[in-house]
Amino acid sequence: MIKQAGKDHAELADDFNRDEDRVNWHDETLWFIREKRDKAAHKIPEWESLREAASQIKNNVLSNLNNYLLQFEKNAVANGIEVHWAADAAEHNAIVHRLINEANVVRMVKSKSMLTEECGLNEYLAKHGIEVIDSDLGERIVQLAEEPPSHIVLPCIHKKKEEIGEIFHKHLGIDAGISDPQFLTEAARQHLREIFLTRKVALTGVNFAVAETGEFVVCTNEGNADMGAHLADVHIASMGIEKLIPERKHLGVFLRLLTRSATGQPITTYSSHFKKPRAGKKMHIILVDNGRTVQLGRQDFRNSLKCIRCAACMNTCPVYRRSGGHSYHTAIAGPIGSILAPNLDMKQYADLPFASTLCGSCSNVCPVKIDIHEQLYKWRQVLVKEGYVPAAKKAAMQVMAGTLSSPTLYKLAGKAGRFTIKYAPFAVSNSLNPWFKQRDMPAAPKQSFGEWYKQNRD
Amino acid sequence: MTSREKILAAVQANQPDLTALPDLSGFDGQAFGSLAQFAEVLTAVGGKIFHVANYAAIIKIILAQYGSGVRIVTQLEELKKLTRDNLESLSQIHDLHDVEVAIIAARFGVAENGAVWITEEEMQHRVVPFIAQHLAVIIHEDAIVPTMHQAYDRIANTTYNFGTFIAGPSKTADIEQSLVIGAHGPRSMTVFVLKNS
């Protein structure tokens, strides 16, 4: 995904923040999902042991990935699945294109796959005259709106139902002015049923692939991945190489954690295990690198590859909730996206590791115990060292460092700040001060803590 | 060098030292496991549950719920009188597009999440439990495992080409987080728990 008109996270967040009611709704809704996650987690007494087990399994996967890839390939081929390897996004897209051509069709139905978003598959295929229809309801909505998803689990969480009604009025021919979610979902059901019944090629993502058995698992609530795959002649499954797990029994750990972390449900409605193609039909799996082996080599960042894409880190993040997914200008938004994206392009995504308060809530809810906020902090240091941070931010940080390291300067700066807010608030509470945007400046205390302590120490 | 070789070489060069897999034997599921819990969780995720003594009771409930005029498919010998379809001889799966009710035997249920495990063998065609407007599933009352760990223990010695855990009707909350039942798959899921005879 290309940065909208070259804007960075802060500028895009500004755009999102213009509509205060919407920001508040977005913030509260995602926090509500975070609370559902808490309730679901607290019902499982062994929750923390499960997180630890999941973390250890994923650590093992990363430490033995070459063997698991070979084992998976061997077993999948034995099951009758054709295995393809793609070094980057371009190769992945070319493979999909070739498979569509081989099926002699120009239309494909696709269920949710963040990897294909990462690879820009839809745009690539459109350029080559292939029509792709996304079948996840949220993805279909953003596709019709010609926008990328803003959240990996809830792709159109940034949209209001009235806007969705308008989109369906324009594209699906429903009456104008309808905003009832039940009605809108039914309209999409009818529209997509026709698509499922007529497409000969279906692409799905992959949640987990099992080295031991050569099978892969796809989880949905809507049933769209299954409807697409079981009605098509050709099923293409795209997966990042880090989605492998060693043994089938490990699915028990991950399926217990995934949906509870994502939405607070005990499990998705459908957890489908694809082991062999249907008789006479074709099943392909594309193993995609696209920078993952580079990230694997970065000691400080490699364990970002443990991610199972539950989005718990986004739902809990105070910055994500108030800036919206699109402000991250990358396929995977939020805290985890901000440590994955700079690996692909440090220059383009240098702003993302700074889009965080480093509060650590993301790391606390992560079901596979990725140290997300610590990696964000480490990326900042790498990015400054490599020269990808704007001069103004660097200069401001240096002034701050100077002030904080000198007690005299620190006291002086504090006094000046309190004086200004008290007697000349207009000097800071104006549009030139970025801290004042969408915020009110706090009332200034009469004295500093240092001064108070001097008076009250006895 | 092919991409396969390139990727494998890069993985080999960059992966950290081998770490051990955890021992999962502690997840023995003692906090879960009852039929009552299965029923409670299934209901919470939008499913319906009926405890029945025999297949005759199932037929009665199905007919009461859906009437006799709709297309019902099932592979179960005991329910043959409900269907005019023979799934085994169906040549074009797309012909299933107007199925109203699919009735399928499930291998077992999982108490902690209300899911049932069904394989292609019981479905006959993989699309059956997804394309029907309503799904009905039959399990035996003693076929409830506590958690997903025991579920995979149970699956371990079986073979399947395709298998799925299904927990409730198809659903979505993509529009403003409003829960809507009946996204692309069945609009309802009914589980019949068959008493041991």
From TrEMBL, chain B:
One Pfam family matching this protein: LUD_dom
Domain LUD: 36-193
SUPFAM superfamilies assigned: NagB/RpiA/CoA transferase-like
PANTHER family per UniProt: LACTATE UTILIZATION PROTEIN C
Name used for this protein in its record: LUD domain-containing protein
